[in-house]
Amino acid sequence: MPPWSDFEPFIVSGLALGGVYALSGVGLVVLYRATGVLYLAFGAVGAMGALIAWSLTQAGAPGWLSWLVCVAFAAAVTLGYGAVFGPALAARGPLIKAVATIGLTLILYGAMDLLWTTSGGEARSLTLPTDNGGFSIGQIQVNWTQVIALAAGVVITVATGAFLRYTKLGTAMRAMANDREITATLGVPVRRVEAAAWLGCGVLAGVAGLLLADLVALDATTLTFLVISSLAAVLIARLRSIALAFAAAIAVGLLHDLLTPITSLTNYRDMTPFVIAAVGLLVLSRHQVLAQSREES
User: Fold this and answer.
1) Could you report the per-residue pLDDT of 197-227, keeping only the tens digit for each?
2) Percent of the chain clearing pLDDT 90 (strictly above)
């Protein structure tokens, strides 16, 4: 077992990674509650946005413009998909809705493989200016990108919770999660509410893609499968609780990076999301069964 000092740097990186997973999880939960669609193309949209930003930077475009294009691309693709396929998917079952977004994932992944081929062994990196500054905690160096990643997860979680609870649009989204047809008969503009959810999810996908490309790697496969770790968090939250999704996302990010110094477990750290999701679902199911048995007795 390595000494504790070997784990300390990975606490910081794990919290930053968990923050990105958290804001991704919030986007997935809000979209699911508003439309019933589990958006499995979340990671692919963010990945392609990050690669576009990298290409623009390489061509000499200002950094801020490249990042804005990344977020705008992710938002436009997500909103466009929702506008075209959202109405047709509204009456379909949850499985069909989820599988439909896998199609978009495959299209985007194929486009990335075609446009940004890795056959030449080209090394890519998307570095944000916030990497150059930071502060120290003891012997641990923390850069501002890591702080921003964790802060973004916290702020997005709190702000989204307040938005869903205290705004008319948020109330409409919560109502649609319960019954879409009844909500429509009450005069709620369902299409506008759904469009807002698709757009918000797309914006978060672009931001997550940028941050993860800096924190982990600018790699199409890595970024595309960001959705797996985020999905573990939202499954524990049963696609409903934003606060629980945040806590689960932080746990996934921390455990993933804390396994790195343990040589015998390093190769298994990518299994972290699945293990945490399985344990979390088993514990929650057990508590639910116990609660039901108490009520019946």
Assistant:
1) 999 999 999 999 999 999 888 888 888 887 7
2) 34
CB of 104 closer than 8 Å to CB of 41: yes
Q: What is the chain's mean pLDDT, rounded?
A: 84
The residue type found at 116 is: W
Of 32, 55, 52, 48, the closest CA to residue 106 belongs to 48
Structure tokens at 137: 């905690």
Q: Quick one: DSSP state of residue 76?
A: H
Query: What distance in Å separates the CA atoms of residue 46 and residue 213, rounded to the nearest whole number?
Result: 9
Q: Which of 184, 175, 188, 226 is nearest to 204 (CA)?
A: 226
Q: What pairs with residue 135 in β-bridges?
A: 142
Considering only CA atoms, which of 98, 126, 112 is closest in space to residue 227?
98
| Cβ contact 194:34 at 8 Å | yes
- What pLDDT is recorded for position 121? 45
Write down the residue that tokens 């475009």 correspond to.
Answer: 61
